Structure formats: C-alpha cells, structure tokens
Amino acid sequence: MSDIRHSLLRRDALSAAKEVLYHLDIYFSSQLQSAPLPLVDKGPAELLEEFLFQRLNSLQELQLLEIMCNYFQEQTKDSVRQIIFSSLFSPQGNKADDSRMALLGKLVSMAVAVCRVPVLECAAFWLQRTPAVYCVRLARALVDDYCNLVPGSIQTLKQIFSASPRFCCQFITSVTALYDLSSDDLIPPSDLLELIVSWIFEDPRLILITFLNTPIAANLPIGFLELTPLTGLIRWCVKAPLAYKRKKKASLSNGHPPSKIAKDSAAGDDRDCHQLYSKLHLSVLQVLMMLQGHLTEKNLYGRLGLVPFDHVVPLVEEINRLSDELNPLNASKEIELALDRLAQALQVAMASGALLCTRDDLRTVCSRLPHNNLLQLVISGPVQQPTHGALPPGFYPHIHTPPLGYPAHAAHPALPAHPAHPALPAHPVQTFIPGMTFPYRPIR
User: Fold this and answer.
1) Residue (of 212, 206, 251, 246) closest to 229 by Cα position
2) How crowded is residue 286: how many other Cβ atoms within 10 Å of its Cβ?
3) How far is CA 95 from CA 16, 30, 50, 53, 85, in A?
4) Whether the predicted pLDDT of 428 surpasses 60
5) Which of 68, 266, 279, 314 has the greatest CB tally within 10 Å of its CB?
C-alpha cells in the first residue's frame, strides 16, 4: 500500500480519490474470491481516511459524490458494492468519523434525488449493521435536506417508496428512533409524518421487509436499530395526543398569545396530524395481526419479541409522566386516547406473539397509569389459551383470544371497529413488489 500512497500523493485531490476507489474495487474483488466476508485491512482504511475524507474542497466533494453514485450504479456484483460501501462508511471510532458521516449523508441524499437504487440498497444494509447512534445521524441529515431546507422537496423522497422499499423500511426505523416525542423538538415534522403514513398506509407490510428478508437469531445485538420500526411507531401513536397537547400548552404559556390567524392555522395543522396518527395506528395494528404466521414460519414464535417488553416499560413511564405534567383535568381526552391506543397495541402485540410477557408483568408496569377501562380489560380480562405447536410446554402468551380468530363481522372491545376485509380497497391482495420475496396473507 505504500507504493500506492506515494502514487496518490502526486495526484490532485479528486484524481487521488477516484484512484482509491479503483484500488479498493480491485482489492476487494480479489479478496471475495477467497473469503466470503473479507476484513478491511489497515492499509486500505488509512488510504480512505487520507484521500477521501480529509483533502477535498466543496466542488471536489460534489464531483466525488457523483463519481461514487456512478460507481455503485455500474458495479454489477452486489457483494463488491456492499463491502466497499461498508469499508467507506462504517464508523471506526476516530476523528475521521465526522467527515465519513457527513459524506455519507450527502451521498444518500444525492442517491435519493437522482434515484440511484444500488446506493439506497447499500445504505439500507448499512443501517442494519451500524450502531443506532450513527443511523439517527444519517436520518437527521436526510430530514434536514428533504423536510427543512427546500420546501416541497419531500415529494422527491416520497417517490423512492417503489424504488427501494428496503431503504424506506430502514429509514422509518431510524426516524422513529430519532423522533421519540420526548420534547417538542423531537416531534416529527408534519411533512415527514405525512410521508411515512402515506408509505405505510399504502402497504403496511413495508415495515416488515427487513424482518422477512434477514436471517435472524433469537437474541438481537444491543445498540443497533430494531428489526422493524414497530416499537417506534407504537410510541408515536400512543404519545402523540399527549406530546401535541404539551406543545400547545407551552406555546400558550410563553407570554406571547398567538393571533387568531396563527391560532386557526395551528389548530388545522394539529387536526391533520391527529388524523395521520389515527391512520398510522390502524396500519400498525394490521401489521401486528400478520406477525404470528411470519414468526411461526421463521421458528421464532414465543422466542423473539419484535416489540420488546423492556421498550414497553419506558413507554409506559413516559405516558405516566406526561399525564401528570398535563394534569388530567385539562387533558382528559388526550390521556384517554393515548391509553386506548396503548391498550389496543398491547393486546394485539401479545396476541400475535410480538410482545412476550405475562399479564402480571403488564399489571405491574401499568399500575401507576391513570384509570382506563380498555387497558384494565387487557391486563386483567379472562384468558383463552390458543393452541400453538411452536410454544414450549407450560408457555402461552397471556391474551384474550387467538390473534386472527375473530370472525370478519365480530367486534372486540380492545380493537377499533373494523369492516370486513372486502370493504378495504386500500389493501388489495397482490404481490408487494415484483422481484422481492415477500410472504403475505390478507388481513381477515
């Protein structure tokens, strides 16, 4: 590598960067012939940090991004694309990481703008394999570019739904990790919310793509994004009524009462957002109802909780804190709606095997929440044990009824009113996306 470095030092910065990509391609193409997962040696890593992340001005960087987009588009071997993308952008825990992440954000943003699917697919795999703290940085860069900087540019991001659903799934997961509604600044922008709801409502199965197309062990690594955005989306739906009420309360108490026009506009925006969260909540419940069959097919029913109980605990604590902060006398409707959604999500998640816990566990966790009839029914109602061959002896999910056991015309107190399946034209029975393996069962 020392000879290559001396040769690169004699070139201008952009030519040297292009040459590094060329040598990486040769190096990893050769390595992949002898090992399926070659390690990145110290030499190539040092060349990357010296010639790609340190020496370029703004114009050269833009030219490099175009070169990278074209390279990944033209490289026909997926394994080579993946290993080079990983060697370029996997965090190394050193001072080059900031430059690395900045360049990655610009590359993915450009790939969205010009619809470079290979780059988006590489980014999707990167989001699966990289610690969540870096994933939310990429999500924030994309949100800044497409929701904040240029009005109307969100439509460009919206169009990648059919081009790279795998990336869309991972983007949703990282965005829900970023915007946790813990403060007014961490409420998702309305354009972003509308984008994500439109994707999911068009086909709720989008959020299962990573789970369905990834080999999975029962024990998932800590500190990475979850396999699905289900937990984050449940958090959005449940906390939204309280978070928006808190935001409204803060705006009224800042000493500057809004004008009538501003007040009416804000009220209209809030109504739109609340309708979006209602649509999102319905889609999340539909996805949860699909999961028992998928978990069984993967031999993970009763072994893998896609809605981890240790994430439910802080969610309940946040709801309790927000309820106390808002004062039940002034936010009774919002508290009731939040708890209704929590109860519905908990029951359907338990029924499908996505949430592995007992009713005693839930009763303990939810004991300090304000009273809610639906939630009380979920945590203390009668139990009907489902028959499921995949469960070990003595184990059963503590639920009221089997997940898909309701007749199409029957109502259930812990689920929203839902018409029979033929009345749902928005979710036709069809193949999800041509060329992608995607097992599907219609919602009954």
Assistant:
1) 206
2) 18
3) 21, 29, 12, 10, 19
4) no
5) 68
Could you give the C-alpha distances from 319 to 226, 279, 369, 381, 409, in angstroms and in order?
A: 22, 21, 8, 22, 33
- The span from the CA of 320 to the CA of 322, in Å, is 6
Contact 267, 184 (CB under 8 A): no
Torsions phi, psi for 217 (to 5 deg): -100, 160
Q: Which two tokens stand for residue 80?
A: 């080579």
Given a cut of 50, whether residue 437 has pLDDT beyond it is no
Question: pTM higher than 0.85, yes or no?
Answer: no
The CB density around residue 268, as the number of other CB atoms within 10 Å, is: 10
Reading the block at residue 376, the tokens are 């009380």
- Residue 444 makes CB contacts below 8 A (sequence gap 6+) with 404, 406, 408, 421
User: For residue 314, which of 182, 226, 223 has the smallest C-alpha distance?
Assistant: 182
- Residue 75 in 3-state DSSP? coil
Percent of the chain scoring above 90 in pLDDT: 60
- What are the C-alpha distances in Å from 358 to residues 5, 20, 201, 352, 378? 60, 55, 31, 14, 11
* Residue that is written with structure tokens 């609340």 in the block: 274
Q: Token pair 């690169």 is at which residue?
A: 8
| CA atoms within 13 Å, Cβ hemisphere of 180 | 11
Helix H or strand E encompassing 312:
helix 309-326
Question: How far is the C-alpha of 401 from the C-alpha of 403, rounded, in Å?
Answer: 6
Residue matched to tokens 């070659």:
38
Q: What is the CA radius of gyration of the chain?
A: 24
Query: Which pair of structure tokens corresponds to residue 385?
Result: 């044990």
